[in-house]
Please model this.
Amino acid sequence: MTPDQQLTLALPPPPATGETPLVPVRMINEWVYCPRLAYLEWVEGEWADSQDTAEGRRAHARVDEGGGRLPAPEELDEDLARARAVTLSSERLGIIAKMDVVEADGESVTPVDFKKGKRPHVAAGAYEPERVQVCAQAMILEDNGYRVERGALWYAGSRERVPVTLDPELRARTLEAISGLRAAAASARRPPPLQNSSKCPRCSLAGICLPDETNLFRKGYPPRQLNPSDNPALPLYVQTPGARLRKSGEQLVVEVEEEKVEVPMIDVSQVALFGPVSVTTPALHALMRAEVPVSWFSTGGWFLGHTVGTGHGNVAVREAQYRFAFDEGRSLAFSRDLVAAKIRNSRTLLRRNWRDDRETGDKAEALERLRRLAQRAAYTENAQQLLGMEGEAAAIYFARFENMLAPNADEGVAAFSFSTRNRRPPTDPVNAMLSLAYALLTRTLTTAISATGLDPYMGLYHRPRHGRPALALDLMEPFRPIVADSCVIQAVNNGEVKPGDFVFNGPSCALKPGGRKAFMAAFERRMEQETTHPVFGYRVSMRRLMDVQARLLARHFQGEIQAYPHYLPR
Model:
């Protein structure tokens, strides 16, 4: 019995029609290159574009324009025939392929796969993943009745053709790869990351896979700076009443009466709409196709919800999240660490920003009380005790919040006085800014959580309630002081928001449009500031750090890392 026959017998049965799709042959290539990459892309539906993937699409653009018709085996004639973009499948192997070019010479056919780069100078003429991909295409053709004697690779970068010999060893390796990927998909177990691999720095999914970050918890290996640079796209805020957002070609157009502003869609990461702002259907469709979420806020800045496309299709991560949430012991343990992290970060902000021109008599006392509360949080017996401890820490923290604010040059301390946190509605300028900052932070983390496949409405510490993104509120707790509160402090102390930027309506206080615009600019600037991750040691923007934390939380739910590392700056 040949290796081909032996491994054919070892293959799991092909998936039943309508249950699991056939495996694309390009995923077999990825599996040989990196099993974790193939699993993330095919099973979990993850994708991130890069310069390499964009160049690959350009290299395939011409062959993908073909009609895709290959004559039946009995119709092949002596004249050389060439068919482009041929799609065939094999039920026996459970795979499907869109072949760039299939050449026929009357007796046999040759699959030719196009690659964007230059031919590698290796003994076999090409790397193993590419040869396996061609071999899988050849086996599909054979299962459809064609005779295949060889395959080929065409390298666009060097304009060279490399023959692929379909020997027993390559066929055996191909069947092994097919079996491995299908078995991994059936088990729903993500393969472990590569260890210190030179493949990772060039991988477009490095920021999603988090190979070195995961290996730090699994093996103790120090991480490299693998995270790709931040996406240059930024949120688009539209807050003028009566404004209209529409699409024109690849541009988003904001129209306000006779004025209009055009923004390339590729430069937009999110859209945030405040109050009575309308969006055209074509614009909404384009944003959903581009996976750009649209966030809706009330005129006063209350976060109302998201409009997104079909959403992330990774059901496995949500199943793990629900199992974790329904486990009272694990939820309580997570909540203890969460509250302790929030208290520690509140203490850090107070320690850093306490102004020397304010009374300092109780600074040491407040810091000591917060330190003790953070320690005690680890020993609480239930969620009610934890809520009480969080409330006690908040009372200590917000009672001293005014000590971090600089007196206004014109109106003194009273211009931005602050004694206690209040909301719904906020009754003073500082509380109005805090409410808006928390709403913006909720929107940011809801988007980050949704991108990982998690359900932002199923929380652990914040229990589920209709319309409340409980998991986003969980994840934002340690970020409240470090991002939202510090943004308010900077906006006041730097004079970016002034006392005249607020309007009072009865007991409520809100930012005027000009003040809200200035404050949102300060918030986005804070999100772009770089920080050193206290666990991994590399520098990333605050926006990127939140994405990393959301993915680490998903890894924690799925058991890939045992402890979730809360963000605790020094």
